[in-house]
Automatic annotation (TrEMBL):
Name used for this protein in its record: Response regulator
Organism: Christiangramia lutea
Keywords: Phosphoprotein
4-aspartylphosphate modification, residue list: 52
GO biological process, one term: phosphorelay signal transduction system
Classification via Pfam families: Response_reg
Amino acid sequence: MAKILIVDDDHTIGLMLKDILEFNGHEVTVSQEPRKTKENLVQNDIELLLLDKLISGVDGTDVCKMLKKDPDVAHIPVIMMSALHNVDEICKEAGATDFLSKPFDMEALTSKIDEIYPEKG
């Protein structure tokens, strides 16, 4: 199973995702601090990042771009999430591996995780 970091300023969504992903066997860390994303990725040996597009006034695409330029964490796949419309291409241009539009079906999320980590899904 994958070690997953969720960065979302909506505490309820973060905990809901954590519960569901842990039920599916993943190890999950939740953060509401986009500025601590790299630190959390490294400290928790994260294998997959679920990143909200807009987190506490910080643009998640900027966070994604910064991470993808950092050799310590650039290899970690990023699935970006947003309730905003028509931002999937912007997220992918920022380096996101995939995109989920909120609200999303949990089956869609687990399917995307299985695509990225078939041996861990």
